[in-house]
Specification:
The complex is a heterotetramer, with two copies of chain A and two copies of chain B. By secondary structure, chain A is an alpha/beta fold. Chain A has helices at 26-38, 56-68, 82-90, 103-114; strands at residues 3-8, 11-16, 20-21, 43-47, 53-54, 74-78, 99-100. In chain A, helix 3 (82-90) links the parallel strand 6 (74-78) and strand 7. Classes of the chains: A alpha/beta, B alpha+beta. The complex binds adenosine-5'-diphosphate (2 copies).
């Protein structure tokens, strides 16, 4: 799975570079986020702007990764295009992974939750 | 409009391997758009077909990798009718009908589901869904009539 | 990269009707892009497949409309291998080899050709093209290795 | 075939609205241009900016339509995207149908040829 990382105002942003997060890549996707978690990050922004397609297996991997972040773990999503957001909405997982338009908005939301 | 006639059909076939589902899904989305579906509707057809095909690979063929999954795409006016066919273990009676929204507490992470969403997604996104087994052939049929605007959802 | 393995294959099948070629072409283009071809290369694969399938419909099945045309798309690393298969009248020996650029005087409109370009287009756009008949099955095989930049043209 | 017509500086511009000009639509396409020709237009701009795909059958229909325009007939093309231009180039039909980026450029080229 092709991921890249940037720090933005002290928050780790994971950019998913692969256009598809599906049953063929879900395992790798989970492992890549697990690797970030293992380095002590508990609050992540996952940037899905390069993702053209995600299925329930990919979404399940994101849930699984969230569990690895521990008690204080949180993941918010930025950059989801309409077709990607549909999956989160239909499954109600948009209640778990809040969707934001920008990193600024996402960072504010994570800070809010941290209080 | 070219390509939207009632007899326009395309059959797609893959081996039961997850690596083949990406190209299949992309092909189904593009062909659905070509048959007149709007872009978001075509994306929802892709997602539904991928969920159904993943189920055939995982549940019908139990990840054995030596099965065949076929997708038949047929033009409606307007919309598409899709069959996902496998010759593996059939889905038990009533499973499709019972598939409902996942019940979970979004604030309680350890209890969040990591699966069990596929059939519900398909039912939410498609206008009609049914499943039939005859002999060794299992067929999940889905109908998507058009864009959200034209639908009663 | 997901989907680019050596065993990734997608079979597409239509009846021998021109109305089915649009969805088939769009599907082939999208699947080729999904298999890693750049956008322009995928468009050239679509054009080549459409030319080959049109030939099967027109020449192999002589527009009868009751034949079947199959397209097998297979991932190479990098590129795609494609077979266009029909069970109609076979192409005569040497026709593919002889297909060359059209000779015409652009300034003399009445003599401009209106057809006879298909095979030449395929030969120009693909890296390899060959044709084989075994029994009643005719197979046109094409290979496209990747984008223009990576090719010796 | 979905065509629309506009006059631009006295030149007839035919906008092809169908995304595909192929064996399924070539006949209609030729008929639609024949209809324009029948109304006495001999020099046309064909706007292909809405066309996503054209095959040799569609191109053949354009050649056939050109023949209907008679001795002084000329067709120039505007708005061809890369994948459409490829077909004209590979068949050398770009020598018959000159490709232009804008109507202004196309009108100038037609005026040039009319001298
Ligand atoms: N094509 C199928 N063949 C056999 N059983 C199936 C099929 N599709 C679904 N099932 C059964 O229905 C259940 C629910 O499927 P689904 O909602 O897609 O979630 P998941 O696949 O994540 O379990 C599966 O666990 C399986 O038991
Ligand atoms: N799949 C095929 N089956 C039989 N004959 C074919 C096939 N493809 C091409 N041919 C023969 O080769 C000739 C040249 O084909 P092509 O270059 O595509 O131009 P066109 O189809 O416009 O004639 C055709 O006229 C036909 O006689």
């Amino acid at each position: 799975m092709n991921l890249s990382e940037t720090m933005n105002d002290g928050v780790m942003v994971v950019h998913v570079k692969s256009p598809r997060v599906d049953a063929a890549s879900a395992h790798e996707f989970r492992a890549a986020i697990a690797d970030v978690a293992a380095r002590g990050h508990t609050r992540l922004i996952v940037d899905l702007s390069a993702v053209q397609f995600i299925d329930s297996t990919g979404l399940g991997a994101l849930v699984s990764a969230l569990k690895l972040l521990g008690r204080d773990g949180r993941i918010v999503v930025v950059g989801a295009r309409e077709s990607v957001a549909t999956l989160f909405r239909v499954t109600r997982m948009d209640k778990v992974f809040r969707m934001h338009l920008s990193n600024t908005e996402a960072i504010a939301a994570l800070a809010e939750g941290a209080r | 409009m070219n390509g939207r006639g009632a007899n326009v059909r395309l059959l797609l076939r893959i081996g039961s391997e997850f690596a083949c589902v990406g190209p299949l899904g992309a092909a189904v989305r593009a062909a659905s758009a070509q048959l007149g579906l709007e872009s978001e509707a075509a994306a929802e057809v892709e997602l539904s077909v991928v969920e159904a095909v993943n189920n055939s690979i995982e549940h019908a063929y139990r990840l054995s990798g030596d099965g065949v999954v076929e997708v038949l795409l047929e033009a409606l006016a307007p919309g598409v009718r899709i069959e996902v066919r496998d010759r593996g273990h059939a889905m038990s009676c009533g499973v499709l009908e019972r598939a409902g929204p996942l019940e979970f507490d979004a604030a309680h992470v350890p209890s969040l589901p990591e699966g069990g969403m596929g059939l519900f997604i398909v039912k939410q996104l498609m206008d009609e869904v049914h499943y039939e087994t005859s002999g060794s052939l299992n067929v999940l049929t889905m109908v998507r009539l058009g864009s959200r605007a034209g639908r009663s959802r």
